[in-house]
Amino acid sequence: IQDTVLADIERIEVIRGPGATVWGANAVNGVINIITRSAKETCGNQVIALAGGNEGSGSIRYGSSLGKETFYRVYAKYFKREGFGNNDKKDEPSSDNWRSVRGGFRIDREPEAGDERNAFTIQGEAYLNRYDTHYRRLSLSPPYAEQISDTSDAVGGHILGRWRHICSETSETMLQFYYDHTDKDYDPASANGWVDTYDLEFRNRFNALSRHEIVWGLGYRFITDKFDYKAGDSMIQISMIPLRLEQHLFSAFLQDEIRLIPDHLTLTVGSKIEHNDYTGFEIQPSIRFLWTPKKRHTIWGAVSRAVRTPSRYERNVKETSGIFPSDHPISEELFSGKPGALNILGNEDLDSETLIAYECGYRLKPAPHLWLDTTAFYYDYDELVGSGMGMPYMGTGSSGNYIFPVYFKNNMKGESYGAEIAADWQVIPQWRLRGSYSYLKTKRYG
User: Fold this and answer.
1) Which residue in 130, 208, 340, 359 has the most C-beta neighbors within 10 A?
2) How far apart are CA 417 and CA 17, in angstroms?
3) Three-state DSSP state, 5
4) pTM higher than the cut 0.85
5) Which of 44, 166, 63, 158 is nearest to 110 (CA)?
6) Mean pLDDT, the chain, as a whole number?
């Protein structure tokens, strides 16, 4: 669904490790932040076309100005990717045919430098994705499963508005509103659902007492969704209970960057506090230091806590993922020779998965154009979501089949640790060499 015009991307930040203090729940193992160019940087015309044996795509963009301080761009993009075939089962069609069309706009007002100024951004996009899918439809009567070909759609769009009041280089205020709508087929023959997300965020940054840079903010998010099912379907393979749900998320965060010894030692402490409808209050603090004993040497360390909250699927799903025919050994042993269904069932008592992260690193600049970076980390996970089997029971209705339930549970723990060594050498202005080695070990146990 996310398919930004590549030429409009200014940079992509990959922030490794937990970022929950700023980004909130679910920013556990890292954050990928895609930052697009302002409309001021994309004035003029641009046409891009790509073609290949199995795919083709193209985009068109036009940007201009509305006066000296306001700029805009409009764009459209399309791609089509054919199925790549199925090498294992050549008689079965592939299910990766994919088409997408989207269009959008962005308007930026960027006042020239002054004592105080206001900047505005408004952007929006609408899209339509279509997939030719091939999937199994399950049944409690022979042949118990059949291949179905159908077309699945995903349509939606978003709009964002942001206001920034810039007081100085060290002080600014930001207010942002975001709305997103997604409507998607989850089972083209019987089920589809839509999700609306409203998000409001306020953020303020300022310097205090000459050595403190403080960032604080407040946020509110409202999510509403609904799942619909077509009448006449003999078996609904996936459903949500309840079919419609409204969720509220409140948040506040505070981060203080303290220059204990200017240009040599900095301490950053902060925390994000959130309240969600699933697990209540979640506190996600962090503390990190940055020590520069000499000009070309930097040592840093951090301890952080982050959480991943249970998803709507994990709490509310009812999904039939398999059928035991009447002559299956499990049916004969447990179900008295009657067919049975393997059901994945949500658990409304799930807690958040938690992470305590310990990180440290050393950076060295041995020569003007050479950088060396080493990092080590240890992550301790708790309350990871796994699964557990329940006792079979007779299902309701006239089908007379047994249910073999599998529930989500917080019955797993985990840990990961590793290290990375990286080197970056700017040989000449036109030639840059990078190399790295990474080691990662993960464990998951219950």
Assistant:
1) 340
2) 12
3) coil
4) yes
5) 166
6) 90
